[in-house]
Design brief:
The complex is a heterodimer of chains A (422) and B (448).
Chain A lengths: L4 E8 L3 E2 L9 H16 L9 E3 L11 H8 L8 E3 L6 H14 L5 E9 L9 H12 L3 H8 L23 H11 L4 H20 L25 H5 L3 E3 L6 E2 L7 E11 H7 L5 E10 L11 H12 L9 E4 L4 H12 L1 H6 L20 H4 L5 H17 L4 E8 L3 E9 L1
Parallel strand pairs in A: 3-4, 3-5, 10-11
Antiparallel strand pairs in A: 1-8, 1-9, 2-8, 5-8, 6-7, 9-12, 11-12
Chain B lengths: L2 H7 L1 H9 L18 E6 L5 H8 L23 E7 L9 H14 E12 L5 H20 L5 E7 L5 H12 L9 E5 L17 E5 L4 H12 L3 E6 L4 H10 L3 E4 L7 H11 L4 E6 L14 H22 L8 E10 L2 H5 L5 H21 L5 E7 L5 H4 L3 H9 L9 H12 L10 E4 L8
Parallel strand pairs in B: 1-2, 2-3, 3-4, 4-5, 6-7, 6-9, 7-8, 9-10, 10-11, 11-12
Helix pairs in contact in B: 3-6, 7-15, 9-10, 10-12
The chains are: A alpha+beta (422), B alpha/beta (448).
EC number (chain B): 1.1.1.100
Keywords (chain B): Oxidoreductase
InterPro entries (chain B): KR_dom, NAD(P)-bd_dom_sf, Sc_DH/Rdtase_CS, SDR_fam
């Protein structure tokens, strides 16, 4: 037990806005493509991985056993086991911890964490009355009975049910929830647009210097993230109309993440195994923590990571200042601003059970190669995008450099993890 | 496919084409297959080199039929697979008659994709000896043009001190289908102190780096390397990453997305290899681009980009990859192979920049070879002629058909033909071949 778990590397597809260049791809296609690129990068073709854990948030019934099926479509040995996990936007980080924990316990020597989502190919279900009629018709023993059942179909039954984007318990969408938080934490339009601008600029610069050469494999002819706007400006962002929070809202399509398509993977290994295989070790997986808030009771839906971060830092006897880099998933620019404010807010931190304020997260430590606003956010893929990115950034800073990933998720949940450069 | 091309390949079109002298080209024997018929060895003068070499590669051989002037000339009962002529003792004009005497019966007897292989010594000695050495070259080139049904002729010039062990890998390559599109060529084999035994997987466990591996000839090289046991590091530009990953996974190698014109390209390749605890056995500089335009329309950018990718980047990477102090660089006994082109050797309208870069590759390997000899690293180039790839498929049909027909095998080569020649050069047993440019062009009409 207690094996050192390292991030060997990762691979993802370029991300794109839904309905864009990846619209023809299913979850299965995306996950398979991301796996294939990873297998090629690390020469795993024909080998058996300890386990692959993946998942998608928007899943069709045909996505039954999605990850295992993607493994079978990949170049990994068909003897590679797999499972599906799902924790909304935290899925890709949760799969990372699932695999890391198994490695830490010595149950497997290496494994792959993954996540995929396509909002282009979101499942559309039929209305409850229509579903009941169709099931009855298909179970009918005679043609007459079948026709009788089908005759009960009414035009109103035929309207397709789009996937729900509201929180089931509040009826509010994530954006609407964030608009409440935005208001409550007094997050201004300018600071949100500044975060969106930095995200695009940082991501564009990272692409230009080849940072993603060993993190992204093109897919369906798409070679770079398609949402990225290298030339965007504060003026351009400032002209956008609010989409959440009513007429006087501050959240726009420019400072909120777009519905996206993409998949990401992480190769994790026992450090001794990685050494023996001649595979690189970028960073050690130190620890992770999940938290949840009572959003039906009025808590900020997307601020659960704050409590998780506080508990994790305390457990690791670390302070915010020990983190050289912080990756905060940009669900909305306002989420990032509110999270930073919450880290500084002594009363809030005590209210969520921490000993006090966590401290400041400076600009130069935050999302330095861009994040979800510019990259996109295929829900389950985001965690698996962040882990190799941060691992590579920390590795470049030298042994011992530590960084944190913070991901908020639907349902009022949040997961944070700490990595340390090897 | 254009309407014209469809018509040409229709049953009627084929008949018309055949009447016009454009017969269906022969289907070439490929891969590690030996000829079906007997290998005939003709030895002229006192030499055991031919028989020693065939013994070394484990091939039995028959005695030749000799034309001694009777009418009609004698023939072979059954088709023969190959006619190997050991002419290493030939150095007088009068002895050339003996080549004629064994070649004449052999010309009609050779099976489809049969082989004529001439073993000779490098030209040395008096005027007559040097003239005779060159005469063999003329014989080889003409025999190659007269042979039919995919049969080829090639000449191997041996250094004076080279023996059977040095030429064994070349003999094996030439007899087998691997040399299908190598025709009418001549190259030299030097002596080496330690040529290893031949095996069917000579690259087993050896790391070979291939640039431009995502498509076409590069992908064929990766596959052929894997067949011969190599651990392939497949390199291509990040934009080609999807195809690159597919190739890498197919050959169970690794993919390295990298622009070879990056200043640190060599260092990144070495790091990739060193991280896995390896050294490089071979580097195949396959990546290349074309930016064709008549010279009158060629601007500085078109000129520079082709020279940068095809020549300068290769030279820069070599400097790092051949530095023994760099972890993950080429090990002693390693191999460097560049890709030249018949366009570079012969010149080609609209390709000044490309011809410059490809002729430059030939010059580079000739310059490098002696400097690396002490580390037993060989440096060679292959020069493909017309090869059927996505790139050549874009040439207009009539022009493409002319290119295909303008060689002794009346067809375009396959990417695997280039790959096979490269694998032959990468074989540890090919230690005696360095500083050579080997054309894989079916004896194209143009070129040196």
């Amino acid at each position: 037990m207690n094996h050192d778990v390292v991030v060997v590397g990762g691979n993802r597809t370029p991300f794109a806005k839904s309905g864009g260049p990846l619209r023809e791809a299913t979850n299965h296609d995306l996950l398979t493509a991301a796996l294939e690129g990873l297998v090629a990068r690390f020469g795993l073709a024909g080998t058996r991985a300890g386990e692959v854990a993946g998942g998608a948030v928007l899943k069709h019934p045909r996505d039954f056993n999605l990850t295992r099926e993607a493994v079978l479509s990949s170049s990994l040995a068909p003897q590679t086991p797999a499972c599906d996990l799902q924790q909304a936007c935290a899925t890709g980080l949760e799969t990372t911890m699932y695999i890391a924990n198994k490695i830490a316990l010595g149950q497997i020597s290496h494994g792959i964490a993954a996540g995929a989502d396509t909002a282009s190919d979101a499942p559309i279900s039929v209305s409850d009355p229509l579903r009941r009629i169709l099931l009855e018709a298909s179970a009918a023993r005679s043609t007459k009975a079948r026709l009788a059942a089908l005759a009960r179909i009414r035009p109103s039954h035929l309207a397709p049910q789009a996937p729900r984007v509201e929180e089931p318990r509040t009826g509010l969408s994530m954006g609407e929830h964030q608009a409440i938080t935005t208001e409550r934490w007094q997050v201004g339009r300018e600071e949100q647009d500044a975060i969106a601008l930095a995200s695009h600029r940082n991501l564009a610069a990272a692409w230009d210097r080849g940072f993603f050469d060993d993190l992204v494999t093109p897919f369906l002819g798409l070679t770079r993230d398609a949402i990225l706007r290298p030339d965007t400006t504060l003026e351009a962002l400032g002209r956008l109309r609010p989409v959440f929070g009513g007429e006087n809202g501050t959240m726009t399509a420019g400072n909120s993440t777009a519905l996206s398509d993409g998949a990401a993977t992480v190769l994790l290994a026992d450090s001794a195994w990685a050494d023996a295989q001649g595979l690189p070790s970028l960073a050690r997986v130190v620890d992770a923590e999940v938290a949840a808030v009572d959003h039906p009771g009025g808590a900020d839906l997307l601020l659960a990571p704050v409590a998780a971060a506080g508990r994790l830092l305390a457990r690791q006897r670390m302070a915010a200042g020990d983190l050289e880099l912080v990756e905060i998933h940009e669900a909305f620019a306002a989420t990032v601003v509110a999270t930073r404010k919450a880290w500084l807010d002594d009363a809030y931190c005590r209210a969520v059970g921490l000993d006090g304020a966590l401290g400041a997260i400076d600009d130069e430590r935050l999302n330095i190669t861009g994040s979800s606003l510019a990259v996109g956010h295929p829900f389950a893929a985001t965690g698996a995008r962040l882990v190799p990115t941060l691992a590579k950034l920390l590795h470049a800073r030298g042994t011992g450099a530590r960084g944190m990933i913070s991901v908020c998720a639907a349902g009022g949940q949040g997961i944070v993890a700490i990595l340390e450069a090897v | 496919m254009s309407a014209l091309e469809k018509a040409f390949h229709s049953p009627v079109g084929r008949k018309v084409a055949a009447k016009a002298g454009l017969a269906e080209p022969a289907r070439l024997r490929r891969g590690r297959a030996y000829p079906a018929g007997a290998i005939v060895l003709a030895t002229i003068g006192a030499s055991t080199l031919g028989s020693d070499t065939l013994a070394r590669i484990g091939r039995p051989f028959d005695a030749p039929v000799v034309d001694s002037g009777e009418d009609p000339a004698p023939g072979y009962g059954n088709p023969i697979g190959a006619l190997v002529i050991d002419a290493t003792a030939v150095n007088r004009i009068a002895q050339l008659e003996q080549l004629r005497a064994v070649l004449r019966p052999g010309m009609r007897a050779l099976e489809a994709s049969g082989r004529v292989i001439l073993l000779a010594r490098e030209g040395a000695g008096d005027w007559e000896q040097q003239a005779v050495a060159r005469a063999l070259d003329g014989i080889d080139r003409t025999v190659a043009k007269e042979l039919r049904k995919g049969a080829t002729s090639n000449l191997v010039r041996m250094a004076l001190d080279a023996g059977a062990a040095d030429v064994a890998s070349t003999m094996e390559f030439l007899l087998q289908g691997r040399s299908a599109f190598v025709d009418g060529q001549a190259w030299s084999v030097k002596a080496s102190p330690d040529a290893p035994e031949l095996t069917s997987r000579p690259l087993h466990g050896r790391v070979v780096v291939v640039t431009g591996a995502a498509r076409g000839i590069g992908a064929a090289i990766a596959r052929t390397l894997a067949r011969d046991g190599a651990r392939v590091v497949a390199v291509d530009v990040p934009a080609a990453g999807e195809q690159l990953a597919a190739v890498a996974n197919e050959v169970a190698g690794t993919a390295l997305q990298l622009d070879i014109t990056a200043r640190d390209a060599g260092a990144r390749i070495a790091e990739h290899v060193a991280a896995r605890g390896d050294r490089i056995h071979g580097v195949v500089h396959n990546a290349g681009i074309t930016r064709d335009k008549m010279l009158a329309n060629t601007d500085a950018d078109r000129w520079a980009s082709v020279l940068e990718v095809n020549l300068a980047a290769q030279m820069r990477m070599n400097e790092v990859l051949l530095d023994p102090a760099v972890p993950g660089s080429v090990a002693d006994g390693g191999r460097v192979v560049g890709i030249a082109s018949t366009s570079g050797l012969a010149g080609n309208k609209g390709q000044t920049n490309y011809a410059a870069s490809k002729a430059g590759v030939a010059g580079l390997i000739i310059a490098m070879a002696p400097d690396l000899a002490s580390r037993r690293i060989t440096v060679n180039a292959v020069a493909p002629g017309f090869i059927e790839t996505d790139m050549t498929a874009r040439i207009p049909f009539v022009q493409r058909e002319v290119f295909r027909r303008s060689n002794s095998l009346s067809q375009g080569g396959s990417p695997v033909d280039v790959a096979e020649t490269i694998c032959y050069l990468l074989d540890p047993a090919s230690q005696g071949i360095t500083g050579q440019v080997i054309r894989v062009c079916g004896q194209n009409l143009v070129g040196a």
